[in-house]
Specification:
about 270 residues, alpha+beta, Arc Repressor Mutant, subunit A, 2 domains, seven-stranded mixed beta sheet, two-stranded antiparallel ribbon, disordered N terminus
């Protein structure tokens, strides 16, 4: 996948910012992006849900078990906030299995409140102001995610042992699965796969810089071997680990071509699709 040689006016930009402290329990980050040119955008599964304003509609974007491809028009500007894995059902007021993977109009869930937010967003000019509108919209929900679910989500990032996680958070295995499916849309095993894959994505920069190896990363993350990592990566991203590393290498050698500031973490939008 080559680096897009585009004029500055057509650069693709994606930046993340930390959420307000008062919303840190429900928001992972806020973000804004500029498309630059028309293309499909790959969204990698992470168990989160984004509220996204694209200039016309306010939508919820959900992906759990597979990569999602969204078509974005040229010069499209988007602003969003990312609901933490395990917090989306509480904020949205909807069990996650009831939401299809992809985009859902927020007004279909929240009615007039979402439509009023769309009017305010349309009248707000700058990304920071729009992100503030979304943050206030989330704050008005007064959502309180289940602390046991958030603790289980964290634990399943490093272990696949559902029984141990259930015991640690004080519920039965059956109850853990029920709570996770409601809050995330995935059971413990699937959520562990997705969370471990996200940990792999955070190793792309060290891999691109040759500070580690795919075999070493596979062992560190608990994959059976490098082939196991490869199979999981193809299922969850549609690309091989080596292909994702090559994209990271190209970003490191010519970051200005992307106009992309990753901040402290790899974004949900794969840089190769930006």
């Amino acid at each position: 996948m080559g680096i897009p040689l585009r004029p500055v006016a057509a650069r693709s930009v994606y930046r993340e910012v930390a959420p307000p402290p008062a919303l840190a329990d429900v928001l992972a980050c806020g973000w804004h992006g500029h498309t630059g040119w028309a293309r499909p955008l790959r969204v990698l599964p992470d168990g989160c849900a984004d509220l996204v304003w694209d200039g016309d509609a306010l939508t919820v974007v959900v992906t759990v078990g597979a990569p999602l491809w969204l078509w974005v028009p040229a010069s499209s500007s988007r602003v969003g906030v990312r609901l933490r894995c395990g917090a989306a059902a509480a904020v949205l007021g909807t069990p996650m299995p009831e939401l299809p993977a992809g985009e859902v109009r927020l007004s279909d869930l929240w009615g007039a409140d979402a439509r009023r937010a769309e009017e305010v967003l349309a009248a707000t000019a700058d990304p920071d102001g729009r992100r503030g509108v979304l943050e206030r919209l989330v704050a008005r929900r007064s959502a309180a995610p289940d602390r046991r679910v958030l603790a289980a989500v964290h634990a399943l990032g490093v272990t696949a042992r559902g029984a141990e996680v259930a015991e640690a958070v004080g519920v039965s295995e059956r109850a853990l699965r029920r709570h996770l499916v409601h809050a995330v849309g995935a059971g413990p095993r699937q959520l562990h796969r997705v969370r471990r894959f996200q940990r792999f994505l955070r190793q792309l920069d060290p891999l691109a810089a040759r500070r580690t190896s795919l075999a070493g990363v596979a062992a560190d993350l608990g994959y059976a071997d490098q082939s196991h990592l490869g199979r999981e990566c193809r299922r969850l991203s549609g690309s091989s680990p080596a292909a994702l590393v090559r994209v990271a290498e190209k970003f490191q050698t010519a970051p200005a071509a992307w106009g992309h500031d990753r901040g402290h973490d790899l974004p949900r939008h794969h840089p190769g699709a930006l």
